[in-house]
Amino acid sequence: MMAKIKPEYSLKSPKTEVYVGDCREILPALPKESVDLIFADPPFNWNVSYAEWNDRMAREDYIEFTHKWLDECVRVLAPHGAIWVNIPDDTAAEIVMHLKYKHKLYMMNWCIWHFRFGQCRNSNFIVSKVHALYFVKNPKNRRWNQEEILEPSDRSTKYADHRTTQTKTPGMRVPLDVWYGKYWGRIQGNNEERRTTHQNQIPEVYLERIIRACSKEDDLVLDPFLGSGTTCTVARTLGRQSIGIEYSACMAESAFTRINKGTVRIENLFMKKLIKKAFFNTHQGFSTDELIMCDELRKAFLEKCKVEMQKNKISYPGEYQCNHELQRLRKAGELGRVTKTGRITDRTEYQKAEEIAKQIKFAEINGSLDEIMCDPKLRQKFDQMAKKIAQDVDPYLVRRAALKLRKEKSALV
User: Fold this and answer.
1) Tens of pLDDT along 350-379?
2) Residues 284 and 338: beta-carbon distance below 8 Å
3) Helix 347-359 × helix 376-389 angle, to 10°
4) What are the percentages of helix, strand and coil residues in the chain, rounded to 5?
5) CATH for the 9-264 domain, from 3.30.450.20, 3.40.50.150, 3.30.70.1110, 3.40.50.1000
6) Are 22 and 72 in contact (CB under 8 A)?
7) Which among 177, 186, 203 has a CA at the least distance from the CA of 269?
8) How remote is the C-alpha of 380 from its chain's centroid?
9) What does DSSP assign to residue 203?
10) Helix 266-282 crosses helix 319-331 at what angle (to 10 degrees)?
11) Is the peptide bond before 42 cis (omega within 30 degrees of 0)?
12) What is the pTM of this model?
């Protein structure tokens, strides 16, 4: 029986351990079926400088090395667990065959991580992808949290398809199996996530998607090739326990420093994702402007934001921040088209509201129209000015009139 090993670094709550050494020697010391989720981003054998590691093995030696660490990962994987392997073209087939036919694992997905920043070369096409192989022991008994990873549907954002509003998750869908977009590129240059001492760093959003989808809070996540520490850093932010194994002592130390500091963008990005989800659940086909101006729609949106953030243990930032972020997402083109205009039923009342909007002194409110509509205090001040001009006016109609006048570039005093 192998002697018990000790981690070089550790943290509590959630428990995080970093071991230094060869994963083929450390993994056998871990209990059988003790790990809920494994993410492996092994050396590619491309002759890259990884401190003490030899990244230029003979091909047969590299395949033997690959089979060895895979065998140990399968041994420690729980019956409900999942293993993800990040690997390029030249070894993807060998890993798939080994897991499918030797270990009888089930392949749930063969995903692609696509990036635009590939290494330049002229001899053949530039590599712009890596394979993300997703295997489980039992497809009927696995961790799968689709609610955690939903994103806006193209049918909703591009085509305003009303059918998307009639689903259990209005306007949202599970991501495609090709992963790309903002923050999904290779970590290069002045990227905020960049760890200058590490090669081939994985972006935080990649690990966030995998960990959210395939584990739950307090589950144990294992990375046998810790590298820059992304897996343990993200796992810790998401309330998971984790074990990282790193061959190089100096790289392990650097990774642990990063784990201590925490993620750069995960919580902020996830908050935006929840705001999108709240919008698609409550906008009823109306625009962001209409949602923010209409008391009924805005209240439903903000309540949904609170519920989603509480459920995901993210601090609710307040009404202004949710409204303002929603407007930013709209301007960035992330919320798609709308199918309905404002709710105006009485043209005479609306014309009266237009006259009132022209008389409001925006300089005294000290804010642009967007700021006024997003900020509850400024919006209240706007409504009070409208009431002084005409007591019986509907504040909603004056807000709409002000927006219309702004879009027509009419003079607002």
Assistant:
1) 888 889 988 888 778 877 888 899 999 999
2) no
3) 110
4) 45, 15, 40
5) 3.40.50.150
6) no
7) 203
8) 35
9) P
10) 80
11) no
12) 0.78
